[in-house]
Write a structure and sequence with these properties.
The protein has 222 residues and is of the alpha/beta class. It has a single domain, classed as Aldolase class I (TIM Barrel). Helices cover 51% and strands 16% of the residues. The chain has an eight-stranded parallel β-barrel, surrounded by seven helices. Helix 6 (115-123) packs parallel to helix 8. It is globular and about 75 Å long. Bound molecules: erythose-4-phosphate.
Length: 222
């Protein structure tokens, strides 16, 4: 499973890139608005993210009608070659998706909460479908069921739309997404760093180093 970081924060992105851990980035209007703050420009931030990451960068349109979505998406796609235009799972979003795809622009169809929505996104030739697992869990649905359902549907009909498990909130979501066959998991930086940590790794390392210290100093050479 590919790992994307769900953020527009450049320092978080650079740390993950330096560690060689991520394959791409997803942003959304909330994340870009937070990163831009009072003075920053979302387009400039996206440009920097695209330069920093060798992989797909999702950037979302904010219009609600297909014509304006297409106009916005084309502008976003001009920022860099690795931009993936993100469009919401609405009737207009699916129309826009088809139009982007006809022009060879990759599309991430976002805000997916049902298998029927995912089926229609695949039929609109979406490059990625983003089911939001955490937000489904929040309303007492099993978000992971949706990933499993979409996997079966896409495999039944050999759709090549990639399942991008989104709204991941904790490491178990990552494990379950990978087991359910999601192609990509996108997560906040906090979750990415949690994936590395295990208390037994920490205590094991501490005890190895304590034993090593028992050797006379002049023999502690590797
Ligand atoms: C995905 O593309 C979205 O930006 C994101 O995963 C939403 O996550 P949230 O539900 O934690 O805001």
């Amino acid at each position: 499973m590919k790992i994307f970081l769900d953020t527009a924060d450049l320092s978080e992105i650079r740390r993950a890139v330096d560690a060689g851990l991520i394959d791409g980035i997803t942003t959304n209007p909330s994340l870009l608005s937070k990163a831009a703050g009072a003075e920053g420009s979302p387009a400039e931030i996206l440009k920097e993210i695209c330069a920093a990451v060798d992989g797909p960068i999702s950037a979302e349109v904010v219009a609600l009608d297909a014509d304006t979505m297409v106009r916005e998406g084309k502008k976003l796609a001009k920022i860099a070659d690795n931009i993936v235009v993100k469009a919401p799972l609405t009737e207009d979003g699916l129309v826009a998706c088809r139009r982007f795809r006809a022009e060879g622009i990759p599309v991430n169809v976002t805000l997916c909460f049902s298998p029927t929505q995912a089926l229609l996104a695949a039929k609109a030739d979406a490059t990625y479908i983003s089911p939001f697992v955490g937000r489904l869990d929040d309303i007492s649905h099993d978000g992971m069921d949706l990933i499993r359902q979409i996997r079966v549907i896409y495999d039944n009909y050999a759709f090549d739309t990639q399942i991008l498990a989104a709204s991941i909130r904790h490491p178990s979501h990552v494990v379950e997404s990978a087991m359910a066959g999601a192609d990509v998991g996108t997560m906040p930086a906090k979750v990415l760093w949690q994936l590395i940590k295990h208390p037994l790794t920490d205590s094991g390392l501490a005890s190895f180093l304590a034993d090593w210290e028992k050797l006379p100093e002049d023999r502690r050479v590797i």
